[in-house]
Write a structure and sequence with these properties.
The complex is a heterodimer of chains A (about 220) and B (about 130). With about 220 residues, chain A is of the alpha/beta class. In chain A, about 25% of the residues lie in helices and about 25% in strands. Chain A contains six helices and seven strands. A seven-stranded mixed beta sheet of chain A has the order 2-3-4-1-5-6-7, sandwiched between helices. In chain A, helix 1 crosses helix 5. Chain A is globular and about 50 Å long. Chain A starts with 18 loop residues before the first strand and ends with a helix. In chain A, about 45% of the residues are buried. The N terminus and C terminus of chain A are likely disordered. Chain B is mainly alpha-helical and about 130 residues long. Chain B has one domain. Chain B is built from six helices and three strands. A three-stranded antiparallel beta sheet of chain B has the order 2-1-3. The radius of gyration of chain B is 17 Å and the shape is elongated. The two termini of chain B are about 35 Å apart. Classes of the chains: A alpha/beta (about 220), B mainly alpha (about 130). At the A-B interface, strand 1, strand 2, strand 3, strand 4 and helix 5 of A face strand 1, helix 4, helix 5 and helix 6 of B. The structure holds guanosine-5'-diphosphate and magnesium ion (MG). Guanosine-5'-diphosphate binds next to helix 1 of chain A.
């Protein structure tokens, strides 16, 4: 790493008291990830791409990218600047597709994240299985059921919990990804849950709860 | 955002482009995460970058710096290609990676409490 004194001017860069935090927004295609990020982000959501091969293995090396099998996965990226009495904090939101073949990007994505939101569309409930399973063993997460008017039947969050075998201590709630209040409420809910986990008021992984359900074995 | 259109595209573009951008390099020499924050150094090197891409990065990373993912999105480049570019700029004494901040532990209740309080104080959320 370059040392400040390397520069002839001898000046340090402007001090950056900015502290970063991040939240992962995961879910199937079309579930409303981009919409949710857009609702709360202070910038127009940006999309980054990560390269992957059709085999789904991480391309940590660009060699071989010329192969026709290479493709890219788009991720949304938003940001919220929070001012606290002590310092400036920037909360980053990463929206990522929940399909199994994109899982390899999630280690980088979820590294250091304070938690995740798994967005669910009740018309395609099964899309949520992979992300739920992934986060269940890694970090605090909440499940947000994005309500589309087109859905034939409006599921109760508890029905979604049962269908997806979500442990009792993981919050499940309805939201409208298009609504800023609702979307911000989901993040707030996640923070409350992550705080409860950090303070030991609830189980991070809820092993007992999962065992009690007995359904995952 | 870059002037020549949206920074995103569903078209992955010609595959030779990454090689040109990274001058043949295929992996970044410096380890960084998608959310790692890069800072522009007050070095002469930072004022002397020549490529438009590098100039954009220098601009983005002034002051409080910028996260890798945001740089990638702004440049309209894949994250991996961006990391290689940034890595080169670190080697040239143009940028540095901001060291992990104390008190940013995602399992620390104080840290989480601070974020929660910040979320509740967002301008149009006060009082709800
Ligand atoms: N009716 C309704 N439409 C929504 C809602 N959230 C997202 N959409 C729409 O659903 C489509 C897919 O949403 P998008 O955010 O792009 O999904 P993504 O693939 O998960 O990023 C878009 O046309 C959105 O406008 C919602 O809560 N209600
Ligand atoms: Mg999307």
């Amino acid at each position: 790493m370059p040392v400040y004194d390397d520069s002839p001017t001898g000046q340090a860069p402007e001090p950056a008291p900015t502290v970063d935090a991040k939240i992962v927004i995961a879910g199937g295609f079309g579930v409303g990830k981009t919409t949710l990020v857009k609702s709360v982000s202070e910038i127009t959501p940006l999309t980054t791409e990560e390269t992957l091969t059709s085999a789904g293995t991480e391309v940590d090396d660009l060699a071989g990218i010329e192969a026709k099998t290479a493709t890219t996965v788009a991720m949304d990226f938003g940001r919220i600047t929070l001012t606290t009495p002590r310092r400036q904090m920037v909360l980053y939101l990463y929206g990522t597709p929940g399909q199994e073949r994109f899982l390899f990007t999630w280690d980088d994505l979820s590294y250091g994240a304070i938690g995740a939101v798994v967005l669910v569309d009740t018309r395609r409930l099964a899309d949520a299985f992979v992300p739920v399973e992934f986060f269940e063993h890694r970090m605090p997460f909440v499940v947000a059921v994005n309500e589309f008017e087109g859905a034939l039947y409006r599921y109760h969050p508890e029905e979604v919990r049962t269908a997806l075998e979500i442990p009792p201590d993981v919050p499940v709630r309805a939201c409208d990804a298009r609504d800023r209040h609702s979307a911000a409420g989901v993040l707030e809910h996640l923070l409350m849950h992550a705080l409860a986990v950090a303070e030991g008021r609830t189980h991070r992984r809820s092993l007992t709860a999962t065992t009690a359900l007995g359904a995952r074995t | 955002m870059a002037g020549e259109g949206p920074a995103w595209s569903t078209d992955p573009g010609p595959v030779v482009r990454p090689y040109a951008l990274t001058r043949g390099r295929t992996r970044p020499a410096h380890a960084m995460r998608m959310h790692s924050r890069l800072l522009t150094l007050p070095s002469p090197a930072a004022r002397q970058v020549v490529t438009p891409e590098a100039r954009r990065v220098v601009q983005l990373c002034r002051g409080h710096g910028c996260a890798v993912a945001e740089i990638a999105a702004t440049l309209g480049r894949p994250v991996h290609v961006t990391k290689i570019l940034l890595s080169d700029l670190i080697d040239s004494n143009v940028l540095m990676i901001q060291p992990a901040e104390d008190g940013a532990d995602p399992t620390d209740p104080n840290f989480l409490g601070e974020i929660l309080a910040g979320l509740r104080r967002l301008p149009d959320r006060a009082g709800t």
